[in-house]
Give the backbone structure.
Amino acid sequence: MLKCLWAGGITGCLFAAEFSCCRGFRLCGGDKGAMETDEVCGRPLAPFGAATFGASWLVPERPIRTVGSLDKHADTVCKCHQLNREKGSREELPCRVKGQRPLRSPEAAPLGSPVTYMKEGMTMGLFAKLREGLTKTRDTLMGRVDTLVKETRKIDEDFYEELEDILLMSDCGMKATTAIMDELRRRVSENKVKDADTAKQMLKDIMIEQMDIPRPPLRWPMVMLVVGVNGAGKTTTIGKLALRFQNIGRRIILCAADTFRAAAADQLTVWAERARVPIVKHAEGADPAAVVYDGIQSAKAQGADLLIVDTAGRLHNKKNLMDELNKMRRVIDREFPEADVRCMLVLDATTGQNGLAQARAFKEVCEIGGIILTKLDGTAKGGIALAIRQELEVPVWYIGVGEGIDDLQPFNAKDFVEALF
């Protein structure tokens, strides 16, 4: 009997080692201290795809996958969740290992299937990530407001003037600042407020009301034209949008209509591979309207829900490039009349009031359906979101508060102001 058990154990270990020899795994020799464990359940990690029997004795020698990595040998899952994978389950696994990696290998999933990315610290909620991304703005804007409130003994004209200066220096814009201050004066007077803390809470409520613009519901099929100046982050934002819509079950096609910038199509292709979505592209220097035409035909043939079009970065004072944008819009209206067309303007939040000038010029050429604010984590002037509301009356759809794939978040006025305070 002992011989049978000994033979069975050896067979199981040899089978597991043979199964994983090409995956860069080694036998740990029973040294439990050398084994990695899952962060959530604490169970030993086993190689993805390895035999369940004896797999707990295997330890990965290769580094954990990083976001965007296509190393198919880097995946690891804990032994207790491996059965889900072996049974063919496509549910997102709750376990994760240290570092950044997708829960499902992108190249292993069929084209068009959702790919969920996880990273260390994913347990941080959306609000906490938003608050972290707005640290610079909060320190500049609300830090000075808190100091003002502490030093104020009574609410007088000096208090209002100091508060107005703080809002202007945070890039809230003159129009938005004037509207906020007028409303604050009215409420303080009506409620006979004497202390600065109550006035601060009123300021918070006013800012939420000023920024809260209802967004029209999404209708499918949809064509999303992504426009903006060079360097605003259009291509990266498109990749993040594709992942976001992909993970809610929508069929996405990317269209590389930026044929002007060198390697723009190649950059978008990388994002298409990460999101496992098809891409339509032409040679560099091709007519962007022709690329859009082919993208529309592909979307109609494949029954896609969303066609996201990457356009060339154009300055708002370049008439020929703006005319090219109009041409693409005419092609969409003619070839895909049933589609809901949304023109999304990507603005770099670090440009401040110059971004407003860009938005005004784009609004004259095309109907801007929404704004995506990027790089909010890199600026202390997040008040630009308030200025956009007052100046343009266009809703902010998404905000970028980091470089990670999941750092593009839907904009919520209440959460945004809460994170600032």
Q: What stands out?
A: The mean pLDDT is 74. Residues 2-19 form the longest helix (18 residues). The first strand starts at residue 25 and ends at 27. The chain is about 45% helix and 15% strand.
